Amino acid sequence: MPEAEEPGINALVHSDPETLDGTPVFIGTRVPVATLIEYLAAGDSLDEFLEDFPSVGRARAVEVLGVLRSDLSRRPAAD
To answer: What ranges do the domains of the chain cover?
Structure first.
């Protein structure tokens, strides 16, 4: 049985010039994906992010992080 493919980033994130000047946001919200990255980079937990932005939902946040990780791991290393 083939492995289920991860959803692409376009199934999870939306960018529209009419919404936050085109900043990529979680679909169905006005929460920028960059905000999740900023929380994690500052040492905050996913739970803290979700407390402040419950409209994102744990499953969607984890999916986006998985897609980003997968995309980064496929990029060739810089020389």
So the answer is: 9-74
* Residue 55, helix vs strand vs coil: coil
- Domain 9-74 sits in CATH at 1.10.10.10
The pLDDT tens digits of the residues spanning 66-76 come to 998 887 777 66
Which residues, 6 or more positions from 66, have their beta carbon under 8 angstroms from its beta carbon? 6
Please tell me the number of Cα atoms within 13 Å of 77 on its side-chain side. 1
CA distances from 29 to 46, 66, 73, 76, 78 (A): 17, 19, 27, 32, 34
